[in-house]
Amino acid sequence: MTQQPALEFIQFSHPREMTPARQQELVDCWAEVSNAGGAVGFPFLPVSHDEVAAAADALIAGLGPQRSRLLLASAGGELAGWLNIRRDPHPLVAHWGTLHHVQTGLAFRGTGTGAALMRQARDMAREDMGLEQLRLAVRAGMGLEDFYGHLGWKEIGRWTGALRLAPGDDRDEILMALTL
Q1: pTM of the shown model
Q2: Helix residue ranges, H only, 3-161
Q3: Please, what is the average pLDDT of the chain?
Q4: Whole-number CA gyration radius for the chain
Q5: Taking a C-beta distance cutoff of 8 angstroms, is the pair 57, 46 a contact?
Q6: What letter would DSSP give residue 64?
């Protein structure tokens, strides 16, 4: 593993907090990771910057302190990775949140940035959002279940063949949880 860079974590809980420059960094990272085969929300490649920008607009518009937050990790002023934490407001499930779009920029792979981002997300979810549990879904065949397992996440279910990437390329969707 390459040495982990010094990271700065920035949390966004309202659309007005996002600057155009930060949003462009997020879009650039998301497009780069997607087009490199990352399982971050765009399964059919290649994805255009316009497609990613529209998804980023919707994601940012939905931010709110108790329902959705973005967590960005920066190193030396460059976006190293980011993720989104969402909470369902229904009282039966408001104690847990779901992680979406977890990713690290390609230049930051293998540096510990992803693990640091996940630890920061855990702390933010517990301390700032009052959550008791986090959940996420990962695409099988990418090695992601091992990455999350090393961080304390447990596989709680699997939807066999749920994701059809191409004819003959069906993948399981693996459901994981972390108690905070």
Answers
A1: 0.95
A2: 20-35, 49-61, 113-127, 144-149
A3: 96
A4: 16
A5: no
A6: B
Burial state string for 63-76 with b = 16 or more CB within 10 A and e = fewer than 16: beeebbbbbbbbbe
H-assigned helices in 47-173? 49-61, 113-127, 144-149
| Residue carrying structure tokens 């994701």 | 163
Which pLDDT belongs to residue 3?
Answer: 76
- Cβ neighbours of residue 127 under 8 Å, at least 6 residues apart? none
Q: How confident is the model at residue 4 (pLDDT cuts 50, 70, 90)?
A: confident
Instruction: Give the strand pairing for 169-179 and 78-87.
Output: unpaired
Q: 120: closest CA among 173, 74, 67?
A: 74
pLDDT in tens, 45-93: 999 999 999 999 999 999 999 999 999 999 999 999 999 999 999 999 9
Angle formed at CA 49 by CA 44 and CA 55, multiple of 5 degrees: 75
CA distance 86 to 109: 25
